[in-house]
Amino acid sequence: MKRLFIFLAVSCLLVCSVVGQEPLRRKKVAVVLSGGGAKGMAHIGVLKVLERAGIPVDIITGTSMGSIIGGLYSCGYRSSELDSIVRAQDWSYVLSDKDDLSHQSLEEREKQNIYAFSRSLNLRKRVSDSGGGFIMGKNINSLFSTLTAPYNDSIDFNRLPIPFACVATNIIDNTEVVFHSGVLGVAMRASMAIPGAFSPVRMGDMVLVDGGLRNNFPADIAREMGADYIIGVSVQGKPKTAEELGSAPSIIGQIVDVNCKNKYEENMSITDLPIRVNTTGYGAASFNANAIDTLIRRGEEAAMEHWDTFVALGKELSADSVPQQPVRKTASLNRRQRIGSLRFENMTSADEVYIRTKFRLHEGDSIDNTRAELITTAIRLDLFYQSAGYRIEENAVANSDGTHSARVVFTAGTKKTNQVNLGIRFDNEEMVALQANAAFPLRTKLPMEVDLTLRLGKRIMARTDWDFHPRSFMRQKASFSFHHNDVNIYEKGRKSFNLTYNQYNLTVLPFNFNFRNFNFQIGAAWDYYHYRNLLVDRQPDHQFDRPSNQHLFSYQAQVDYNSENNWFFPTRGARLHAHFVYYTDNFVSLDDEMGTREYSASWRKTFPIGSRFSLQPMLYGRMLSGKHTPFIISNTIGGEWFGHYVEGQLPFAGVGYIEQAWDKLVAAQLQGQLHLTQNNLILLRLVAGQDADKLKDLFDHKTMIGTSLSYYYNTMFGPLGATLSYSNVTEKPVFYINLGFVF
Questions:
Q1: Cα gap 395→255, rounded to integer Å
Q2: 126 or 436, which is more confident?
Q3: E runs forming strands in 492-631
Q4: What distance separates the 2 farthest-apart alpha carbons in the chain?
Q5: Nearest Cα to Cα of residue 507 among 558, 456, 470
Q6: Is the CB of residue 377 less than 8 Å from the CB of residue 137?
Q7: CA dist 183 to 171, 194, 230, 735, Å?
């Protein structure tokens, strides 16, 4: 009996000891991602290998690009999704302050493709939204807001599917700022704000820039968050030698790399598994498609060198008592949500009414990221705010039926006092031309804007535009312009005339309807042509007097449609233009006869064939009817663009300068476009045309044929290209060089 009692007592003690003992805790694994700009794309390749090896990630910390990749991974994106996201971005757009004009008027889209530099200014305020950076970051803010949904309200980052932290630098006192909470997109934006390139993020009395200046490899933060095992990824390159520092980007990159050495070695020393990716040949700005592909692959290769370590770590972790992993809330890129609450911050009540009316916004309606971005673009363009953003806070509003809906918040920055745009171009015909534009919003109940434009070069132009933006798709406009033109006109490749004249123009468009890719105008114009000088060659049939100064009053209607995905080198979409003008000298007739009528049209369609090649057929023509057609509006052909030198100019491959043509002209062009890379293109054009004085004689004349071969490279200043062409009109080769947007 005594032995039985002792046995039972010992058994109870053993059971109690086992029951009271805490279960074995699995090691917490942290992933630390360094900064490095575009080189940080390699982080995605490393994450792919971690997933393949089955390594659970419990903590993520990052700086700069590491904060972006890490922040998105902590939201629930898998490495394959991140791979798709970074490849799908137009990084030249994302890393700029250009507005997304795909849903805006064709006029706004054209302006974006004229000026190489644009800047919003606020002369009434010392600190503007730009805040000391070349790039304000409007587009990257919008991208972060979209990608971090449904975590774009202020939250504790430990509540993310994977706890997360990132680092920024407060340049007020040069201290390290660690984000464990807040708006995730804002934290990521602060962490990657490269000084001078991106404007800093201002929070209270802090001015935050790139965290790499203080802690580019935040392994110490991961350890503070409870990490037992740290896997660190560094894309830091070796310091450049004196011979390699031969350009401004290389010098700037070296300065950044040197300043990012703070705490680097000591943080590497506490990293259990450091992975150093070879990024030789690539820099912080290598955001092109080939570079992204290579960097992701190199990240995979660097991680695979540690595959045996990953396998051993996976076995060790699986042998421990592993708690159930949290279920990740799938990040949604464009999910429609019901609006429970709609709020506008830093906007006047009149502006709020404008946006609500234009977009028919009401509580109870649905919204997605695409529509929200469209609204923020309108806040910037129509209401003249320097910046605008939005937040969609999921399930923030309780409905009476027990369900929940979203709180949608639109936030505007300061109002512009003006917008300054600058364009510059060079070609071997006009040489250098410069065009500047300044837009001045008027502080009225409904949006109004005054534009001033000045062009300097061989052709001088000064123009004032007044725009009125009502709450619908109408946009009334009035403009007055002065042009000083010095135009050479050729005949069969030989200069025959030089005409110098001034033109004064007043145009009123009471009906100007804009809807996405479509524009329809009805208006009237007054033109006064003052002819200064006419020089002619010695050909007997060219000897005539200078034209008489002339007033013209005209009525016009115009239709434009453009769904092309690129203004200059589209790979899909179509473009249509149709124009009718009735010219008079007394509002009714011209020289006591029926006024001259102009009928012009062009149509172009892009047919993609594979991923790199496309065919673009184009039909175009211009017909003039009337007994007394003014010389200045007659047809001319030549060059690559419509109306480049004079209003009646139609492009024609193989004709360099403009050549006189008959009043009836039609042409067809077939263009083949080959993308060697994203920015390198080869264009081959073949064009045929017919012209005549009378429509019935159109096909009785000799067919004009031209061809051209061009190479173009897309630069931030506009297309840079060279064209070699030939036609039976001039019967000699033409070489043309162009740099810059067309104006």
A1: 46
A2: 436
A3: 494-515, 518-536, 550-562, 573-584, 589-590, 593-594, 596-609, 613-625
A4: 142
A5: 558
A6: no
A7: 20, 19, 26, 55
Cβ atoms of residues 557 and 521 within 8 Å: yes
Give the DSSP letter of residue 161: S
Answer whether 555's CB lies under 8 Å from 582's CB: yes
Among candidates 517, 523, 504, which has minimal Cα distance to 464? 504
696 CB burial (10 A radius; 0-12, 13-18, 19+): exposed
Q: Using CA of residue 273, residue 274, residue 278, residue 283, what is the dihedral sign? A: positive
Q: How far apart are CA 444 and CA 466, in angstroms?
A: 13
Q: Which of 660, 659, 646 is nearest to 503 (CA)?
A: 646
The pTM of the full predicted model, rounded to 2 decimals, is 0.72
CA distance 710 to 719: 12
Q: Do residues 449 and 417 make contact, with C-beta atoms less than 8 angstroms apart?
A: no
Q: Kindly state the tokens that stand for 549.
A: 């100064």
Planar angle of CA 315, 317, 323, nearest 5 degrees: 135
pLDDT digits (tens, 9 = 90+) for 373-415: 888 888 887 787 877 888 887 777 777 777 888 888 898 888 7
Interatomic CA distance for residues 700 and 10, integer angstroms? 117
Kindly state the tokens that stand for 297.
């692959």
d(CA 344, CA 46): 41
Q: What is the DSSP string of 508-528?
A: EEEEEEEETTEEEEEEEEEEE
Confidence at 240, pLDDT banded by 50, 70, 90: low
For the four alpha carbons of 451, 454, 459 and 460, in that order, the dihedral sign comes to positive
Q: How many other C-beta atoms lie within 10 A of the C-beta of residue 320?
A: 12
Task: Report d(CA 176, CA 213) in Å as an integer.
Answer: 9
Classified as helix, coil or strand, 337 is strand
State how far Cα 282 lies from the chain centre: 23
pLDDT for 278 = 93
State pLDDT tens for residues 586-629: 999 998 899 999 999 999 999 999 889 999 999 999 999 988 88
CB 655 within 8 A of CB 639: yes
Distance between first and last Cα of the chain: 109
Q: Do the Cβ atoms of 729 and 490 come closer than 8 Å? A: no
Give the amino acid at 427.
Answer: D
CB neighbours of 519 closer than 8 A, spacing ≥ 6? 105, 106, 107, 512, 513, 558, 559, 560, 561
Residue given tokens 């994450």 in the structure block: 47
- Predicted confidence (pLDDT) per residue in 152-190, tens digit: 778 899 999 999 999 999 999 989 999 999 999 999 999
Torsion, CA 629, CA 631, CA 633, CA 635, rounded to 10: 90
